[in-house]
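Teaching assistant here, posting this on the class forum so everyone can see the example we discussed in section. The complex has three components, and the goal was to see what a joint structure prediction looks like when all of them are supplied at once.
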Amino acid sequence: MVPLWMFLLVAAALFCIGTFAVLSRRNAIAILMGVELMLNAVNINLVAFWRYGTPETMMGQAFTAFVMVVAAAEAAVGLAIIIAVYRSRKSVVVEEVDLMRG
Amino acid sequence: MVELNAHTVVFAIFSIITLGGAVGVVWNRNLVSSSYWLIFSLFGVAGLFVLLSAPFLAAVQVLVYIGAVGILITFSVMLTRGMTQIKDVFNRQSAASGVVAVLLFVVLLVGVVLPVWGPSGALSSAPASDVVATTAELGVALVDGSQYVLPFELVSLLLTAALLGAIVIARDQDK
Amino acid sequence: MNFDANDMNFLPWLIPAAPLLAFFVIVLITNRARWLPGTAHEYSGDGQHPHYHGLLVPVVTDWGRVASIVVGMSGVVAAWLMSLVVVSNALGPNIELGKDVFASSIAWLATGQTTFSMRVMIDPLTTVMLVMVPLACTMIFIYSIGYMAHDPRQARFFALISLFAAAMLTLVVADNLLLLFVGWEVMGLCSYLLIGFWYEKDSAYQAAIKAFTTTRVADVVMLLGIAYLYTQTGTLSFREILYNEEVLHQLASTPALLIGSWGVSAAGLIGVFLIIGTVGKSAQFPLHVWLPDAMEGPTPVSAMIHAAAMVSAGIYAVIRMYPLFAAGGHPHQGDLTLPLMFMAVVGAVTALFAATIAVAQNDVKRVLAYSTISQLGFMMAALGIGGYVAATFHLITHAFFKALLFMASGAVIHGVEHGHQHGQGHGHNGHGHDDQGHEAHDSHDVQAEHGHEAHGHGHGGERPDAGLPDHSFDPQDMLNMGGMRKTMPVTFWTFLIGGLSLAGLPLVTAGFWSKDEILADAWYGLSHGYGAHTLVFVCLVLAATMTAFYTMRQLGLTFWGEPRTAAAKHAGLPVGPVSVSMTLPLIILAVLAVIAGYVGVHPDFPLFGALFSSNGNPFFNFVGPTLLEKPEKLAFDWVPVFFSFAAALGGIAVGYWVYWRKPLEAGQEDPAIKALGPVYDLLKNKYYFDELYERVFIRPSQWFATAVVSEFVDHGIIDGFLHLLARLANWIGEFFKALNLWLIDGVGDGIPKLIGDFGFWFRRIQTGRVQQYLLLVLIAALLIGVIFAISAGLLQAAG
């Protein structure tokens, strides 16, 4: 089988790409996509560690399943917020949403 | 160090799909294309799950991410259509972000992955066992009183709450 | 403990739990009120309530009202069904309940070395109570649906009577004095809340306080008794005290605290304390004063207090504790212990005394109230002379016919109120007015709802006896009635059956059989020349005669002759569910008021004994084994039977001759006034007991409160000291004020200014851009990671 570190490598790369999207894109939906990529990287890690560590238990798969549910919830709420913001400000550019500025 | 067999080739293909899709998500100007790239990338992740002997998760990945989240994102893009063609894709800190992302990757790779699990790492990088729990066992574990039934119920509650919350937030207040 | 509903040992826990749950559900969930402007509908027959004029008052929504009724009913019906299961198991052929009770316990409190267990127990006595209490409660609940139908606080009412029923059932199934006392006290609270249910009425509110404080006086004494018993025996469990020869013997032979030198045993002192508790709860002389005033509550509450719960609880407690009272004595051999003697005297005196007062009362419910006191006296007296089974029997039959009488009198009052409105045209006027209001505000939700309720009011008659002080017409006054047998036939016949049962009409009514048993017990002692038995016999025969007389008076004044007022002429229950729910329980209880007596017929009674008791007296055989030493069966004797006949028939005959032969005309004086002369005044004013208590207890305590506590202690000593303190504090304050202005303000103003300036400068890093924050977080994380890696490498290199 492919050694574990290669999976970790792919996951790390995916995570960093997602991070970059989150940090640099202006569109909120693109940021959300970046978050999804990061979550998937985590899922790859979880499943990989499970497969190479303790495949006879259910821990890794169960956690992954929970992460997926949380990610789905996050996507739903996040997109709802984006739509609400768009409706009120006619913009989804995060830099323009700076009500919290000191 | 890595044998070139069918398994490795498939791994390579899915890795390329995953990472390539991810890069597509980041670089594309058009958000609609971005969302398609996202679906592509997530499909790659599903393939990796299959390679990791987690067919159920792969199926869930396809159903939930590609089927639901992908569509949701596509819809959101369309609902905020005025924003699909904004001129500046990246913000002012994109260069710094790129540096940080690459640095993060290097630190992870050099600082954690390779020293611990790498070819000459401290821990074995081979599977500990070939006995893999089946999907049936996963099903039992999720509703077993001694295992994951509480997180399972909590997470279903969370999902319900999130969906209700999403509806409340996204509802048009004027009507 | 095994939590299995089919387990008879466990089921008793659930019986009180059902109405208790109903109470919580109603209070917490279904009792939802809306705030509406207080108007005629909620608070009086005509016009605004003076105190609530224009204010918002809570009105339970229709939904909440119906849900509350459903919840309350299901609670009590569930309790009733579970009781039936328990009772049918208890009556099973293979069970000797006297020896092997159904019981289960859970640990409750740890007191020092011992753990106090909460235990329930079903023995024959409990079984008999479980036949009576839940059934009577269910009837009262059904009746309340109709009776309270137009009360804005019906949901609250159902919550409270559910709690009441739960408390009573707890008390019945309890196996120790403390749990019994818990039920006892909760009932005291419920009676307070329910007697004062119409708290807008000053008299109801006063009556509630009177009932609460009077019973409280007795309860404190009872608690003393319980505490004393616990110190003596280390347990309060009935099984461990009352069915344990050794404990009883030890209690009877230990001299009592303080007064032991006078020949009083511990058992005697404890007994007297516990009996005083009952004297308060069951309204015996001299703590009877609260019970007649308790008539201010809604009539179902009166039925609850007088029949199913409260006062029965008092008698039940003494019946339950009887072995303790009798410890060291042999009542059937004329050897009465102090508690038994106390009970016999109090009971006999109360029975006679209350019966005489009842003769001169004109309020239909007050007559019944005094008759209750009198009948409870019968039971106390019976128990005092060792008539354990007879007292229990009378408790059961009395509960049935007294619940019947109260509910029937409630129906009468309801009918008269209805007739009064009809006669004055109020119902119609109110109706039309409310309809206008309804149309005018139809679009407005709240108003529409309100109009709807008021509409129902116009139809459904009035909230009974909730009249305001300015309401000069008294719907409870029997002089305002008469001739109602024609307008309210069902009520008349059921009232008649209940009344005759109370009067003890020989052979056909339950009241006869149970009173006869008591007289037989007393006669047995009299024929052997025992003093207490003689007193009891004489008092009870006289009281029974008077009972028959005043019952006939009441029936005659209420139902016979021609209507004396327009209200009585038009009296009647509104057609519909109200009338059904109010008459159905009357009919069921009327049947019970007749047949309940046949379970306790003496086997040697001519004809009837052979008919109903061919295998011995069934009630006696069932309840007797509750005692450790089964009470001896008395031989049949003609003398007490003769006296029973004479008392009942004599009283009925005199009553007939005075009040039925020539029914009272409108405006005519009660013939008793002329016949009794000044005695009538004495009776009418209840021997001036309220006035006596006013002089002896209330005035002095008020004087003490005003003159001594308020003037001297409070204003003189305490206030003086406080004023000194205040002045001192003032000086210190002045000093600190000077200090404050100079030192603290200087520092205090400086620091905020510094912080403010810093904040003004520092806030610039708060850009409001999330991505920027994230980037910084990540850089920080990277730095930490790098530092961590370097330090780890250094450590590795070092060692």
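For the discussion questions: The two ends of chain C are 64 Å apart (CA to CA). Chain C touches chain B at residues 771-772, 775, 778-779, 782, 785-786, 789 (CB under 8 Å). Think about how each of these relates to the inputs above.
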